[in-house]
Design a protein that fits this description.
This protein is mainly α. It folds into 2 domains: 30 residues; 110 residues, no CATH class. It contains 8 helices and no strands.
């Protein structure tokens, strides 16, 4: 076989392989690295029970926590960010950017429950996409433990 014929065969095999991969991915039979990372991020944000626990924050010195009024204000901001036709994701992100410590998530979750008798994470999961929840988790991870 000559060199040109070998190159042609290799190119055809690569094209067939890429095509099969794209078809399988479209059918959901193959997970990409991004899909696996998204699934891990989803599991992390959902299962990090300390973050969403209503009592975790009480184990920290009060100097690292918000005032109750401020935590309630942040909880209200999240509650009000859910719209009938359009949600204000930036308002939610703003709440998490204001947090100085990861335990503040727990404190706001506690304030949210006290005000609305609802779980903060579940409330947000009902109107935010997984990508938006992952973005929030990314903000939280920048805060000290």
């Amino acid at each position: 076989m000559n060199k040109e014929r070998i190159i042609t065969i290799v190119v055809i095999i690569v094209i067939i392989g890429v095509t099969l991969y794209l078809v399988y991915k479209k059918l959901g039979l193959v997970e990409s690295v991004a899909d696996i990372k998204d699934e891990k991020a989803k599991k992390s944000v959902e299962t990090d029970s300390q973050l969403w626990s209503r009592s975790y924050w009480k184990t920290f010195p009060t100097s690292t926590m918000f005032t109750n009024a401020f935590a309630q204000g942040l909880a209200t901001q999240i509650y009000d960010s859910r719209g009938f036709f359009d949600d204000d994701e930036e308002a939610v992100y703003s709440v998490f950017r204001q947090m100085k410590h990861r335990a503040n998530v727990s404190q706001v979750a506690d304030a949210f429950y006290a005000l609305y008798k609802d779980d903060l994470y579940n409330y947000m999961a009902n109107f935010l996409s997984q990508k938006e929840l992952d973005y929030i988790y990314g903000i939280i991870l920048t805060k000290p433990s």
